[in-house]
Amino acid sequence: MLRKTLNRIFSSRVFYILFSLLVAVALWMFVELSENQTQRHTISNIKVEYRNREALHDRGLLIASIEPQTVALAYDVPRSVIQRLNNNTVSVEVDLASVTRTGYISLPYDIVMPSDVRRNDLIGETKSVERITLLIDRLSTAPVPVRVDYRGGTASDDLIVEAVEFDPQVIMVSGPEEAL
Questions:
Q1: pLDDT digits over 115-168, tens only?
Q2: Maximum Cα interatomic distance, the chain, rounded to a whole number of Å
Q3: At residue 32, what are phi and psi to the nearest 5 degrees?
Q4: pTM for the complete prediction?
Q5: Whose CB has fewer CB within 10 Å in the chain, the N or C terminal residue?
Q6: Which has the closest alpha carbon to 129: 102, 103, 104, 111?
Q7: What is the pLDDT, as a whole number, of residue 47?
Q8: Is the peptide bond between 168 and the residue preceding it cis, with omega within 30 degrees of 0?
Q9: pLDDT in tens, 54-70
């Protein structure tokens, strides 16, 4: 009798539906728990970018050197986020609006994450450097005359050689004062 009852229960459609739902919920919970585990992820060679570079140029200044030129960041992140964090999707920006003098200047930087990554998913931030050091120099402009040195001749003495024509006669070169 017990065998008949169990056989009837296990062969019923309702049992298979309930069993399928139970397996689906168990698999969903397994994936959800294993997917949201955090791992340490390092993003290397993030290139330093600049905001308000035109403000620097308007003040007659330029960046002569940058140290460092790239930054590395490390976070504890869920495994589902790791694929979206690399040196092509994460950027580091330095704002040059406050730079008004020449010499070495150390500036903080802002980290720009992809729009689909929430900041609260990123735990335990570690930076390779805290600030970016710039050497700011005076921007100078100097005129440089253009000369064409023609050392050729003509195929025959009967032909007339005219002066070489070229345009522009002068070009303007910009750069650090010491280089000009």
A1: 888 887 788 888 999 999 999 998 888 888 888 777 766 666 666 667 777 788
A2: 127
A3: -65, -40
A4: 0.62
A5: N
A6: 111
A7: 92
A8: yes
A9: 988 889 898 888 899 99
Asked: is 37-138 a CATH 2.170.120.30 domain? The reply is yes
Whether residue 68 is preceded by a cis peptide bond, meaning omega within 30 degrees of 0, is: yes
Q: Return the structure tokens found at 63.
A: 């960046």
Rg, the chain, Cα only = 34
pLDDT of residue 112: 92
Cα separations in angstroms, 130 against 68, 125, 133, 145: 11, 11, 10, 45
Tell me which residue of 37, 124, 28 sits closest to 80, measured CA to CA.
Answer: 37
Q: Which of 29, 96, 103, 37 is nearest to 64 (CA)?
A: 103
Which H helix or E strand runs over 83? none
Rounded Cα distance, 127 and 27, in Å: 37
